[in-house]
Design brief:
D-Maltodextrin-Binding Protein, domain 2, 2 domains, 275 residues, 35% helix, 11 helices, alpha/beta, disordered N terminus, globular, 6-stranded mixed β-sheet, 11 strands
Length: 275
């Protein structure tokens, strides 16, 4: 990661930083653009982007000839980031892992303002990953039987209330008639976000983890240790972003995300490109 990219956890410093309210608007003061706002580009990004986004940022700075552009990224679950933004955290861009949270911001904060219309920047994929078990040799039916038959195995998903990848994993388990049984048997371990779900699976704290496919690509997992679920077997993980401020560099960066160059980064990282 380049020296001008700051990756932080959810930080009280972001909450306490505020901008002066623009005259003549009814938006919260903290998320209005002002002439005094720092030129640092601040991005709130879903946890699943922690592998690919730093690479995209370096490419953006190189391609645009902006070596000194400071870009600060906070990775967390989309739900937590949404709450931070509603509370006034001074982000310029929100890159969520679903379409719901940016749409809520458009309706609840920006009141349908076309300057803050959400945009789809990628589509995520869901994999079942295990650091200790072989899963890549199964098909979907035999994999379901495996998860159902081994009553001692532990399975993790991200919090479905906050993490879109967790919501899709929950839906997949429900369609396979596994979710309620796993809950009843106390075999389903809920992680805070998709990053923590992957950590649980990767360290062997659980036997299987429903993770972002981009995570297994990033750590170069061998094929026998993951199974890429068919995109039609769970709700599509369409990931939307939204501009929080009217900063020109924020709009320029989101244009880069959606350009053929930006989409090539996502494709190599295990996402499905969007048009």
């Amino acid at each position: 990661m380049g020296k001008n990219i700051t990756v932080s956890s959810l930080s009280l410093a972001l909450i306490l930083t505020a901008c002066t309210k623009e005259k003549g608007t009814d938006l919260p003061a903290e998320i209005n653009n002002t002439t005094e706002q720092s030129q640092i580009l601040r991005i709130a990004a879903a946890a699943n982007l922690s592998d690919v986004l730093p690479e995209i940022i370096e490419g953006y700075k190189t391609d645009k000839g902006l070596p000194n552009q400071e870009i600060e990224v906070t990775f967390a679950s989309s739900g937590k980031l949404y709450s931070q933004i509603i509370s006034g955290a001074p982000y310029d861009i929100f890159l969520a892992a679903n379409q719901d949270f940016p749409a809520q911001l458009l309706n609840e904060v920006f009141k349908g303002d076309a300057n803050h219309t959400p945009f789809t920047y990628t589509q995520g994929q869901l994999s079942i990953y295990s650091a200790t078990k072989t899963v890549g040799v199964f098909d979907q039916n035999t994999l379901t039987e495996l998860l159902n038959s081994n009553d001692k195995s532990k399975i993790t998903i991200a919090n479905p209330e906050l993490a879109p990848y967790g919501a899709s994993a929950k839906s997949y388990l429900q369609t396979q008639n596994l979710y309620e049984a796993l809950i009843a048997q106390k075999r389903l371990i809920q992680a805070e976000n998709i990053g923590q779900a992957f950590q649980y699976a990767h360290t062997g704290s659980v036997d299987y983890g429903f993770v972002a496919h981009s995570q297994v690509i990033a750590m170069k997992a061998t094929p026998e240790h993951f199974y890429l679920l068919a995109p039609t077997s769970y709700p599509a993980i369409l990931q939307d972003g939204i501009l929080i401020t009217n900063e020109a560099n924020a709009a320029d960066f989101t244009d880069y995300l959606r350009s053929p160059t930006g989409q090539a980064y996502f494709s190599r990282a295990g996402y499905l490109a969007v048009r």
